[in-house]
Write a structure and sequence with these properties.
The protein has 812 residues and is an alpha/beta fold. Strand 28 (699-707) and strand 29 form a beta hairpin. Helix 10 packs across helix 12 (355-372) and helix 14 runs parallel beside helix 15. The chain is globular and about 105 Å long.
Length: 812
């Protein structure tokens, strides 16, 4: 007997048992396919209560064939009343919803009734807010009058959360709806995927009135999903999201964006034109156009006053419980003005280099708002160059809630998992409120993500992480991609991700659940006769998906397991469910072709070996060391043609070091600037620079950038280790026609016993049998019209290791 048949017989046994108990109880919701109950709602039911009654009516009919009436006037001859939502009838039964919040609910049954209730408040936004896209000018005029300034409106996207079908706001109280869905789950209904293809509905002619009295509260109050593409979701897809039991948390985090909140104070052109000094000075110009909102100079007193004006206007008018004080997105470079000079700390690595600078500002702003709004919260991010806790602040302002950014799918790397947990602990030590939220990323299915088309399953990492967060975090916002299909991704984006979502949302309510039992039920119910094969595919993918972007063998194994599952599924619904995944992983076949081809067609660079004694690092290439060293020309990185401003490189091996000389011709030397005059400053990425991407047999890969003044920014990209130091020796020079760099990059190997994860390139001399792979890239900075050229053109983006050129010392 197959596992599926055993499971099916077991389910029949459970159903038979339920029917037997129904007969003995003689109290039914449905008996032999006939309705014995009616659904009672309030005279004017809340939107979510109305939807809940519809959901209950529809699914009881799908289960039993009986359609129960929905009414606000109970009939005298109907044996059982099902009260959906708070009403005068639940008041008479003294079924209180007091103390229930964040989607919590109560389920109670008596001799002749079942009550499924939660708070019923309809969401009503405060004007002015944008009702539709063309409404924005009106809102800005009204907001200017209210605030007395020219701020952006933080409510420009609010209309997207007003759903016409079903008729709800996603911010409505959903406790009653959650109660109905939990009751339906108790009958065996499951919603794994949007639409009918994703639901499990058991068949039962008789449904007994249960013995029931319980209150259900979630382990995580905030269960916020930031869907990319919610405006394009179908009614079935919206319902699927609601059936997850999400809570967007207006009562916790308000309606404004709970991260990067400063941008609403700095976005408008009126502010930019009147006060450019409020914005960061990067490479000689004010960053007013960074991410459209501009990047702030956090030393500007004028900006601080403007920001406080904005924050108080929002808190006063819109009554928000929390407001984000965080800087704009992509903020990882220190302002280079005199006021900001020396306020970063590169010695902490990039993730801590700006912690005191950014968090010093956030803490100051929080304390200022605490004077006037002590009952409200403010939030800041642990993110980017300010991910680590500040060192100069022993205790943060008491009104600060922390938003910690993480990506739990990466926690297959135990080191990254442990770092995340240690970071939480470190932040909590200086956070008096102990209020922590998580900002998580489920974007692995986004078309422009390297893992798009890869079966990225991580249910056990989800379970492990949520268990560790229970009692620590108040919940999370998950940045998520939702798209049924598009030109870039014709397959449904939830084909694989739906399982990660199912596990996440169930554990949000009860993190102690047995994830293995949950998964076994999923495989049996959703894939039927292919349950064993699909379990093998998912578990293999769960362990190996990180390798599927680089290893042909893992792709082959995954596709073979999926093919076996498709064969076992047969025709009908189970086959269609496997087909969803087959369509989604189709791009992985093209990736496999590229990986199989490998580096067969990459350019090869044969370099010479030289005595290091002849190398004089002076930023010139006129010494004997460089005589007769082959010269390689840079090509436009996209087209492969000659760039308008040419560049060339000479490379030699010099006794355990790579020597690189680069000459950059430039027709506009007056604008070749180097504002970054120290090492390890991220501002360097935006200047005229040369980047060396270097992969050795021991490590893939290093990144070393040098600007036209000879200052270095380097990192080990394998683990995004900014603390890694290449110990490169560099010299630069310039003349009226161009600029020149000389670099000496030392290498070490295990034989020497000198390999250190934080210093020097790990690798022995590159030879034909064990070459290095690399690219040299020139970034010619001219505002937004930057030019890029490279020794190994990629056809697009720079960071494509499979297109790195091959580097080896020529045989003598």
């Amino acid at each position: 007997m197959t596992g599926f048949k055993r499971f099916a017989l077991a389910m029949l046994g459970i159903t038979a048992g339920l029917c037997a108990s129904s007969v003995s109880a003689e109290t039914f919701i449905v008996e032999s396919g006939k309705p014995r109950a009616e659904i009672i709602v309030a005279e004017k039911p809340a939107r979510m209560a109305k939807l809940a009654a519809s959901e209950l009516q529809n699914y009881l009919e799908k289960i039993s064939g009986a359609r129960l009436a929905v009414t606000n006037a109970p009939g005298k001859n109907i044996p059982v009343k099902i009260y959906v939502g708070k009403s005068k009838f639940t008041d008479d039964l003294k079924l209180s919803t007091d103390g229930l919040a964040h989607g919590a609910f109560r389920m109670a049954a008596g001799d002749n009734y079942l009550a499924l209730v939660g708070p019923n408040k309809d969401f009503e936004p405060i004007e002015p807010w944008v009702h539709e896209r063309k409404d924005k000018p009106r809102v800005l005029r009204d907001w200017d009058a209210i605030s007395g300034n020219t701020f952006a409106t933080p409510y420009s996207q609010l209309y997207r959360w007003r759903i016409a079908d079903p008729d709800v706001w996603m911010y409505d109280d959903a406790g009653t709806l959650n109660a109905v869905h939990e009751f339906l789950r108790s009958l065996g209904v499951r919603w794994y995927f949007p639409g009918e293809i994703g639901e499990i509905v058991p068949k039962k002619e008789t449904i007994a009135l249960p013995v029931l009295d319980k209150t259900v509260k979630p382990d995580f109050p905030l269960r916020n999903v930031m869907w990319w593409g919610i405006q394009d979701m179908t009614p079935d897809e919206i319902l699927w999201a609601l059936r997850m039991g999400i809570n967007y948390g207006p009562e916790l985090i308000g309606l404004t964006q709970n991260c990067h909140g400063m941008k609403f104070a700095t976005t408008r052109d009126e502010i930019k034109k009147a006060h450019p000094e409020y914005y960061a000075l990067w490479n000689g110009r004010r960053a007013t156009d960074h991410r459209e909102c501009g990047a702030p100079c956090l030393s500007s007193e004028g900006l601080f006053k403007l920001h406080m004006h904005y924050a108080r206007a929002v808190l006063d008018h819109y009554k928000e419980p929390l407001i984000s004080l965080d800087t704009c997105d992509g903020y990882g470079q220190l302002c280079q003005c005199e006021l900001c000079k020396g306020k970063d700390n590169p010695a902490r690595g990039w993730t801590g280099s700006m912690s005191d600078y950014v968090w010093g500002y956030i803490d100051r702003a929080a304390r200022e708002l605490y004077k006037t709004h002590p009952d409200r919260k403010v939030s800041g991010l642990s993110y980017s160059a300010y991910k680590l806790p500040p060192e100069k602040i022993k205790e943060l302002s008491p009104n600060i809630s922390l938003l910690m950014c993480q990506t739990r799918s990466t926690f297959h790397d135990a080191e990254l998992r442990d770092q995340a947990r240690a970071l939480r602990k470190a932040w909590l030590e200086i956070l008096p409120s102990k209020e922590m939220f998580v900002f998580e990323y489920y974007l692995q299915n986004r078309p422009d993500c390297p893992t798009a088309g890869v079966p990225v399953y991580f249910p056990r990492l989800i379970a492990e992480d949520l268990r560790s967060l229970k009692g620590v975090s108040l919940g999370e916002t998950i940045d998520s991609y939702f798209n049924a299909s598009s030109k870039n991704s014709p397959a449904h984006a939830q084909a694989v991700m739906h399982l990660n979502w199912y596990v996440t949302t169930r554990l949000w309510w009860d993190a102690s659940q047995d994830v293995d039992a949950m998964l076994d039920e999923y495989f049996n119910l959703f894939y039927g006769p292919a349950s064993r094969e699909m379990k093998a595919f998912v578990e293999y993918s769960e362990k190996n998906w990180p390798l599927m972007t680089t290893k042909v063998e893992t792709i082959d194994s995954a596709l073979a397991l999926l093919a076996a599952a498709r064969k076992a599924a047969g025709a009908g619904i189970y086959g269609k469910r496997v087909d969803l995944i087959q369509a989604y992983v189709e791009p992985m076949k093209k990736l496999r072709e590229k990986l199989a081809e490998g580096r067969a067609n990459v350019p090869k660079f044969a370099i010479v070996e030289r005595n290091p004694a002849g190398l004089v690092l002076d930023g010139k290439l006129d010494e004997d060391f460089w005589k007769d060293v082959p010269v390689f020309a840079f090509k436009d990185i996209v087209t492969g043609r000659n760039p308008s401003n040419t560049a060339s490189a000479r490379i030699a091996w010099a006794d355990r070091a790579l020597a690189v000389g680069v000459r950059c011709e430039d027709s506009d030397m007056a604008h070749v600037t180097a504002y970054t005059l120290r090492n390890d400053d991220p501002n360097l990425w935006n200047e005229d620079n040369i980047e060396l991407l270097l992969e050795t047999p021991a490590n893939s890969y290093y990144q070393i950038a040098v600007n036209s003044a000879g200052y270095v920014m380097d990192m080990d990209r394998k683990k995004r280790n900014i603390l890694w130091n290449s110990e490169a020796e560099v010299a630069a020079s310039r003349d009226d026609k161009g600029w020149t760099l000389e670099m000496k990059i030392p290498a070490v190997d295990f034989i020497e016993g000198g390999v250190d994860a934080n210093r020097r390139v790990a690798g022995t001399k590159p030879i034909a049998q064990a070459p290095w792979h690399f690219n040299l890239y020139r970034h010619r900075a001219r505002g937004k019209a930057a030019e890029g050229s490279a020794l190994a053109p990629t056809g697009g983006k720079l960071h494509q290791p499979l297109k790195f050129g091959e580097l080896s010392v020529a045989e003598k």
